[in-house]
Amino acid sequence: MASDTHTDRTATAAAAADEAGLDWLLDGLVRRVPHTRSAVLLSCDGLVRSAHGLDAEGADHMAALASGLYSLGRSAGVAFDDGGDVRQVVVELSSALLFVTTAGSGTCLAVLADRTADAAVLGYEMAMLVKSVRPYLTTAPRHAAAYPPAPQAAAPEPAVTRR
After folding, report:
1. pLDDT by residue (tens digit) across 67-90?
2. What secondary structure does DSSP assign to 89-156, as a single string?
3. Share of the chain above pLDDT 90, in %
4. By the 8 A CB rule, do 112 and 96 touch?
5. What letters, b where the CB count within 10 A reaches 16 and e where it falls short, cover 79-94?
6. What residues does 97 pair with on adjacent strands?
7. How far is CA 48 from CA 75, 111, 133, 139, in A?
């Protein structure tokens, strides 16, 4: 039993170290590219793995948006590119640019920058970050929760006919 506890603690410590490493990577990306505001590493279904430059609510919102954009990109790939993978989705807003790129199996990287940011440099830096650490960016798929079986509805009572 003691070895199980030790294994659990070791796994928890390793996971915490991995997440701290991801925070550092995002911080480096935002600092390297001028006019970059924030970055979020997320699972493709919208769960925040790591964030820089946003509070928890902002990171959750950006992850939800990025997940939706990535999903639309995947649908476009199926419909118009024979099932081609999404490389990058770019949204050009009046004062900002939002980039969403595949970052590993089941993982996306979303970056928000001012319009004055060099889109080519930002895209390149995102690609280099992903390429250098791709094996560490994988998000395992979530498994469906085991729900108890739905209660069976009572059989309807037979209709009474009046004579």
Report:
1. 999 999 999 999 998 888 888 999
2. EEEE-SSEEEEEEEEETTEEEEEEEETTS-HHHHHHHHHHHHHHHGGGG--PPPPPP-PPPPPPPPPP
3. 54
4. yes
5. eeeeeeebeebeeeee
6. 92, 113
7. 22, 13, 18, 11
Contact, 98 vs 110, CB < 8 A? yes
Nearest to 36 by CA among 101, 103, 123: 123
Which residue type occupies 37? Answer: R
Q: What single DSSP character describes residue 40? A: E
Statement: residue 93 has pLDDT above 60: yes
Helix (H, G, I), strand (E, B) or coil at 65: helix
Reported pTM: 0.72
Tokens representing 37 are: 């505001």
pLDDT tens string 19-73: 455 788 899 999 999 999 999 999 989 999 999 999 999 999 999 999 999 999 9
